[in-house]
Design goal:
Layout lengths: L2 E3 L5 E3 L4 E3 L4 H7 L8 E3 L22 H5 L7 H4 L1 H17 L1 H15 L1
Antiparallel strand pairs: 1-2, 3-4
């Protein structure tokens, strides 16, 4: 699994990109709709949350100040488990920014496995 350098200089091992529906309230709700559709999700860090002094990342380039202020990034389970969920999202975002080929290859493999 890819190792990603985090904004604080530590290293994070990205074990998976996609989360199952039960890891996200809204995805879980749609999966339980009775339509028989399996759902997986990819959660990244918004705006500049994954940036560091040596690497600027902005995945929400059109976000208004109000959007950034009211972002759901720290709500839900990410608010309950901030030491695990938020670093995971930051690491995935940094992996996308620094090694798109590896990111896309891993994403495609996970999608095939989910299918």
């Amino acid at each position: 699994m890819p190792e990603v350098t985090m904004p604080d200089g530590s290293v994070y091992n990205v074990t998976k990109l996609l989360g199952k529906a039960e890891s996200n309230f809204k995805l879980n709700k749609s999966e339980k709709s009775g339509m028989g559709i399996m759902t997986v999700g990819l959660s990244l860090a918004p705006s500049t949350a994954a940036s560091s002094v040596d690497l600027f990342i902005n995945v929400c380039t059109s976000a208004s100040p109000a959007c950034i202020k009211d972002c759901l990034y720290t709500s839900g389970l990410a608010g309950v488990f901030p030491r695990t969920i938020q670093p995971s999202r930051i690491a995935k975002t940094r992996l996308y920014k620094t090694n798109k080929t590896l990111f896309v290859n891993q994403l495609m493999e996970e999608l095939r496995n989910a299918e």
